[in-house]
Specification:
With 426 residues, the protein is an alpha/beta fold. 21% of the residues lie in helices and 27% in strands.
């Protein structure tokens, strides 16, 4: 297999060095055989996307061509003062620009006409400000605001908003993003909301079945997978005390690759692209569950999986991979202050000089719903007794409670991996 090095020329003809400064006209066109195609200035555009707005140089070098944002605040300048859309255009990337639509679970009342009008004005202000920027690909009107999909007022308001956005900017499609397809929500939406151009679905476990689920609910138009990644912490096995068991870096990489392949190859050919999540780093149940980069910035095997998926090319420096962590107290309750050994099953290219960083971290007490911001739990000092690469002797915390053993592995070439498991002491 060919190899691709981050920082070297890719030879990817579909990625311009930068975008023209002129606004782009983006259209959806249906062929005589019923298939759909996204076109940008008349040319076919297949989305190879990532959710996030960090490490954009790495995204371009990895074969990606599009990013997705969630709200207007993410379009602001970075530390160097360069606004996000300008940075994307300079790198030849397009943006699915998120227009935040407020959620009932955050206190928004879809029966409050004054609040609805303020939201309409806020969204239109954003559209008018940015619609002529060359990096804008389409508008992402809302993200998971529908909850279980049973409130028709939300769908009707999205219809109003979509019509307003399209009147203000007829040159870019409107996409609305839902949390999965459960509860027959797409079928519930369709009688009330027809103005959007294509649907976005955020899906984790069961991503390979999205096309069949949409077909079963009567959706016959194009769609995007606007978030996908490892099995979510809400849909995975837990310990007896309720701690979700995070997949290994090897399992996550396989999930990204398999899900992307299945969704793009779905038989109806209505999926016009995918956005892996998260092209960045965040605390959500753990600091590593959805993060495609380590907290210190290294790329993980999940990014290598997307490089292979987007380009068919093997990275020159594949990240190390953690296949598992073994310990006699893994996912168990054990005595406070007891001493134990943990070993890691790690693979890396021949000659890689790996650095191992072992930590004991408190289980989060700030777990939120729907990706809302969480406070990162503290590292517990004094737990590492002796470390020898992939093996560590730990003294478990003296304070009763739930914790995790974390391992971060770095290769010195910008690659890394993370793994963890929960345990409890009493």
């Amino acid at each position: 297999m060919n190899r691709l090095g981050l920082g070297c020329a890719l030879g990817l003809a579909s990625l311009p060095l930068s975008l023209s400064a002129d606004p782009a006209r983006v259209t959806l066109e249906q062929a005589s055989d019923g298939t759909w195609q996204l076109r940008r200035n008349g040319e076919p555009y297949v989305i190879r996307g990532a959710g996030g707005y960090e490490q954009l140089e790495v995204l371009r070098e990895s074969g990606g061509n599009t990013i997705r944002t969630w709200g207007v605040e993410q379009l602001g300048p970075d530390a160097s003062g360069e606004p996000l859309l300008d940075r994307a255009a300079r790198l030849g990337l397009c943006v699915l620009v998120g227009l935040w639509v407020d959620h009932p679970r955050h206190g928004f009342d879809y029966g409050d006409e004054a609040a609805l009008q303020r939201q309409r004005e806020r969204i239109l202000t954003t559209v008018r400000r940015y619609k002529d920027h060359a990096a804008v690909l389409m508008w992402g009107l809302g993200n998971e605001m529908e909850e279980d999909g049973s409130d028709p007022r939300i769908w009707r308001e999205l219809e109003v908003l979509a019509r307003l956005v399209k009147a203000a900017d007829p040159d870019h499609p409107v996409c609305t993003i839902l949390a999965g397809t459960y509860n027959d929500k797409v079928r519930a939406m369709m009688p009330h909301y027809s103005a959007m151009d294509l649907l976005g679905i955020n899906i984790y476990g069961g991503a390979e079945g999205v096309d069949d689920a949409l077909a079963a609910q009567g959706w016959e138009r194009p769609y995007l997978i606007t978030e996908f990644g490892p099995v979510g912490h809400w849909e995975i096995e837990t310990t007896s005390w309720g701690a979700p068991i995070e997949p290994t870096s090897a399992e996550k990489a396989a999930t990204y690759a398999n899900a992307h392949r299945a969704m793009i190859a779905a038989k109806r050919q209505l999926c016009l692209g995918t956005f892996c999540f998260l092209w960045g780093q965040k605390q959500e149940t753990t600091a590593t569950w959805f993060s495609m980069f380590l907290p210190s910035g290294e790329k993980t095997p999940s990014i290598d999986a997307m490089v292979r998926s987007w380009t068919g090319v093997e990275p020159i420096h594949p990240s190390p991979v953690i296949h598992g962590l073994q310990a006699d107290f893994r996912e168990k309750t054990i005595a406070v202050g007891s001493q134990h050994t943990v070993t890691a099953d790690v693979t890396a290219p021949a000659g890689a000089e790996l650095q191992f960083d072992w930590q004991v971290v408190a289980e989060t007490h700030d777990r939120k719903f729907g990706g809302d911001p969480e406070e990162r739990p503290p590292v517990i000092a004094g737990c590492v007794v002796k470390q020898n690469g992939a093996t560590v002797d730990l003294r478990l915390p003296a304070e009763p409670g739930a914790y995790r053993v974390f391992l971060y592995v770095r290769d010195g070439h910008g690659g890394g991996a993370a793994g963890n498991f929960p345990f409890k002491v009493e």
